[in-house]
Amino acid sequence: MKQTNYRWVIVALLFFATTINYLDRQVISLLKPILEKEFSWTESDYGNIVTVFTFFYGASTLLAGYIIDRVGTKLGYIGAILVWSFAAMAHALAGSTFGFMIARAFLGIGEAGNFPASIKTVAEWFPKKERALAVGIFNAGANIGAVAAPAVVPWLALVAGWQTAFIVTGALGFVWIIAWWFYYEIPSRHKRVNAAELAHITAEPSVEAATAGDAASTNMIDGAPVTKYPIFANRAIWGFMSGKLLTDPIWWFFLFWLPSYLANIYHLDLKKLGAPLIVIYLAATIGSVGGGWLSSKLIQQGWHPTRARQWAMALFAICVTPVMLISQMDSMWPVIAILSLAVAAHQAWSANIFTVAADQFPKQVLSRVVGLGTMAGTLGGAVFPLLVGRILDHFKALDKLSEGYYIIFYIAGLAYLVAWSMLYIFVFRRVNVK
């Protein structure tokens, strides 16, 4: 019997959901030059708005993971996108800084469900050897969203007003919900999955998830209820959470401040921001898929999955460090090249850190594990914008804004090396990788 390959249709749906997710969240960063004039924002005001989003995003991830584990990925994902799509459109109604904070809070609550649902879907639909590639593909949607945003949002704002930009991008989520409703089901019940593909999907269950192959076991692990699984007794959770805590804030900075950085340091207006940002986020797309491909390729060549993640992530951490050289650059495009390498490395890192969690935990609790990691990452992401805003306001007052950005780039360059060290302590060195 020839094997079907419907699992790649599923990962395509995850890709488009993540694209919409990041498109919606990045609209505000591209419109910052307009909004900060209209609402008299300081860098600290903008940092506070970013912090509100990341705080509610992080605070909601564990609850989102719990709900998705309970109701399943089909309904759980729909609920998440309904909330964030309405919230994205509600930005158009904001008439004050506080109004934007309210809209960002609900956007964070809705978007918190994206990665727990996506990672759980990958664990349901892919064998271990394909998971990093699948995560890399859907995670590339984050970068496509970031690429689409500077190509579309400035044009919408200039032609129809900034409110229209929020409404149009927010409405895309409702289109995705229709597709998800008609095309998604778990593999064992899906009419478009034949026996050969189902056997491929379940060919390599992790030791912990050996009982998770059918619907009857989805609420049990080794005969015990899922609710009693000791997540925190598994030391891998501390490595996963530490890795997210230290590196997610850097991605938030790249996402929310790079348009402002290019506008302030290289004096690019809304019309000229598109090209450099598209280059940067296209590089991130390549990094996301390439990072997932690299570790998957190593596994196919006989490497232990943990060893493959370990050395791939060490390479990605090193690739971020050149951002510390930005202070030595005199022109924009060498800086764009360094930033492109850094965001590509982050997305490669992100694809693999999620699969570290998928490798170490049973799929029945994976949404909660991902929720805990995302919560840790957004805790850092909630605090870091406050620091960034105050650093930039301080140096702006001294008329030395570029020096403020350089301090932040030094922090970014070191963060991944420290995060890899934490993963080594709690995960990599404790697993037999011979």
What structural keywords apply?
single chain; mainly alpha; 434 residues; two-stranded antiparallel ribbon
Global Rg: 21 Å
Q: Tell me, rounded to a whole number, the average pLDDT.
A: 86
Rough shape? globular
| Fraction in beta strands | under 5%
**Biggest β-sheet, characterized?**
2 strands, antiparallel
Oligomer: single chain
Reading side by side through the largest sheet, how are the strands ordered?
1-2
- Strand runs, count: 2
Spans of 5+ residues with little confidence (pLDDT < 50)?
205-217
| Series of secondary-structure elements, N-terminal to C-terminal | HHHHHHHHEEHHHHHH
Q: Percent of residues in helical segments?
A: over 70%
> What's the end-to-end separation, in Å?
35 Å
Tally of separate helices: 14
Return the structural class: mainly alpha
Protein described:
The chain is built from 14 helices and 2 strands. The chain is globular and about 65 Å long. Helix 3 runs antiparallel to helix 5, helix 11 runs antiparallel to helix 14 and helix 13 runs antiparallel to helix 14. About 3% of the residues have low confidence. The longest helix has 33 residues. The chain has a two-stranded antiparallel ribbon. By secondary structure, the protein is an all-alpha fold. Helix content is 76%, strand content 1%.
